[in-house]
Amino acid sequence: MVDLDNPLVYQQFDGSGMLNHLHRFPEQCQKAWEKVLKLELPREYTKISNVVILGMGGSAIGGDIVRRLALAESKLPVWVHRDYGLPAFVDASTLVIASSYSGDTEETLSAFTESLRTPARKLVITSGGKLKHLAENEGIPAFVVDYQAPPRAAFPHNFVPLVGIFQKLGLLRDKSRANSGL
Fold first, then answer.
1. What average pLDDT does this structure show over 99-113?
2. Contact assessment for residue 94 and residue 122, using Cβ atoms and an 8 Å cutoff
């Protein structure tokens, strides 16, 4: 029988160190919060009528939760797009946020590349890859994740930045106290 009170048992069955990542979850939320507060957004980003968050898997889950928060606190529609291409309503008053931990998610890259051909405002959340390269080349604001972990352990780095960005844009109330409790 497995003794779950023995820490060595977890080391034996947790080759990717997921338990350690879970223990560091509050610390990672705090680091992401402190970093997003330093992110500078162009003033015109506050003049939007909707937000489209591009993402797949874990990168989209942060968008789902922020969307629910925005439903309760903002009148601005927020759409989480898990597909190639862009919704037809994307225009100059749309903020498109591309979120891909790896920066190489095919669907997110496809949609983001399409957004480059629109007058929409754009923002990127990534740790690197082609998405980071595109943002740098196009002069698009980017929250660059500097946490090296399996994507499933990077949730604080795709959710917390979205909360901070939405707060900066006036779409969510101040969440500083919630983060200080971590």
1. 97
2. no
